[in-house]
Amino acid sequence: MTVQLSVVREIAPGERRVALVPEVLKALAKSGTPVAVESGAGLAAGYPDDGYVAAGATLGSDRSAILGGAQIVLKVQPPTKEEIAAMPPGTVVVAVVNANRNLELVRRMRDARLTVFALELVPRITRAQSMDVLSSQATVAGYRATLIGAELAPKFLPMLTTAAGTIRPAKVLVLGAGVAGLMAIATARRLGAVVEGYDVRRAAGEQVRSLGAKFLELQINAEAAGGYARELTNEEKQQEAAMVADAVTQADIVITTAAIPGRRAPILVRAPMVERMRPGSVIVDLAAETGGNCELTKPGETIVAHGVTIAGPLNLPSQLAFHASQMYAKNLQSFLSLLVGKDGTLVTDYSDEILAGSLLLTGGEVRHRPTAELLAGGS
Ligand SMILES: NC(=O)c1ccc[n+]([C@@H]2O[C@H](COP(=O)([O-])OP(=O)(O)OC[C@H]3O[C@@H](n4cnc5c(N)ncnc54)[C@H](O)[C@@H]3O)[C@@H](O)[C@H]2O)c1
Fold first, then answer.
1. Cα 330 to middle of ligand 1, angstroms
2. Do 198 and 243 belong to one domain?
């Protein structure tokens, strides 16, 4: 049987993105895959209903019917309690789940016998680059972070020579030079700031320098499996703190993006460092969602402490919903090429490395070991 896809409006607070955009839907429909879309699903991201209809979607307004009639449900956020209840056992859900932060929903989806692929678990191998939602959404977040910093700062970012005098360029410091950090650096450079970047992975140095920024380097290299960072030893943390303190106190805008997979974000900016910053300086803490890189960050809020504005924005990709959705949908299209066979039917053999790696739940079982351990510990 040809697989039926469904897309519903995201109803999580503050979520403006949509899982599929008309351009991608058109390609899916052309290859013979029917897609049902809830009316208004793309509106908040800038994609009105008529675009979906023109692309070949069937539009509906009954959420339960759309969810109940699909073999594959495509989402951005994990399904809500009500959405889970509307899906029959065996429905395949593809979404960003962040299981460790959504254990109750994971338990419900397990008990409802849904098959769930968590896109954040897609292995970061070359073949999966086009499906990498962490990268596509981090690109958006890094860009937005610099714009937020620029908006909150009482200064120009570029150097200006005017009749009213010369303005010195602002100094932007980016801590953590992964996907988001590099995009933040590139954006700050385009705005004309003088930029410094830092990461515990030495390999990041070349990328930072290639963007025209200075790389701050410690004599350590904390690159671990899969190209991610490992946690630093206590001695390394002290070296890092001394170097970061100097750089932070000289910066006008500090953008922090440091993360270690599956752990709380490392604290890089301590309260005494904030105290030593110039009044009017800004910190944009992209790690707010996982605890923050700055000790004073309040997730979801913008506060002023010691004259320094500290922003801890959540869900930055949603703030640039049009392009974030477009990139997300492209990632999904690529992922679906593994899940929907050439004959248009649902693939049931999940042995492919990418499917196996991202399979969170199926048949009432948790397939991702760290999540299974968390659930066993909590129930
Ligand atoms: N498909 C692929 O092959 C693929 C795709 C995307 C990213 N990557 C690689 O994965 C790596 C991580 O990317 P990410 O953006 O998802 O990372 P991430 O979001 O997990 O972390 C952001 C950055 O924080 C850094 N960091 C961690 N602890 C730190 C500390 N104490 N001080 C300073 N920086 C610290 C990390 O090294 C990383 O660069 C990079 O090497 C990237 O090139 C590979």
1. 22
2. yes
Residues 309 and 341 in one domain: no
- Separation CA 70–CA 319 (nearest Å): 29
Ligand 1 mutation pick, 136, 139, 185, 200, max ligand atoms within 8 A of CB: 200
Whether residue 375 is contained in a domain is answered as no
Model confidence, pTM: 0.95
189 & 337 share domain: no
Q: What is the DSSP letter of 172?
A: E
Short-list 15, 4, 6, CA closest to 96: 15
Q: What is the pLDDT of residue 228?
A: 82
List all residues 6 or more positions away from 85 whose beta carbon is below 8 Å from its beta carbon.
Answer: 112
To the query of whether residue 228 is one of the catalytic residues in this protein, the response is: yes
Given a cut of 70, the residues of the chain with pLDDT beneath it are: 378-379
Q: Please give the distance, rounded to the nearest whole angstrom, from the Cα atom of residue 129 to the centre of ligand 1.
A: 14
Q: Cα separation of 379 and 376, whole Å?
A: 6
**Is there a catalytic annotation at residue 351?**
no
DSSP secondary-structure letter at 223?
Answer: B
- pLDDT, residue 262, reads 76
> Containing domain of residue 249, as a range?
138-319
Ligand 1 pocket, residue 265 CB under 6 Å: no
Whole-angstrom distance, CA of residue 340 vs CA of residue 33:
9
CATH code (residue 343): 3.40.50.720
- Ligand 1, closest atom to CA 258? 24
Angle at 75 between CA 72 and CA 79, to 5 degrees: 95
State the closest ligand 1 atom to the C-alpha of 203, by its place in the atom list counted from 1.
Answer: 41
Spatial strand order in the sheet of 253-256: 214-216, 194-198, 171-175, 253-256, 282-285, 308-311, 302-305
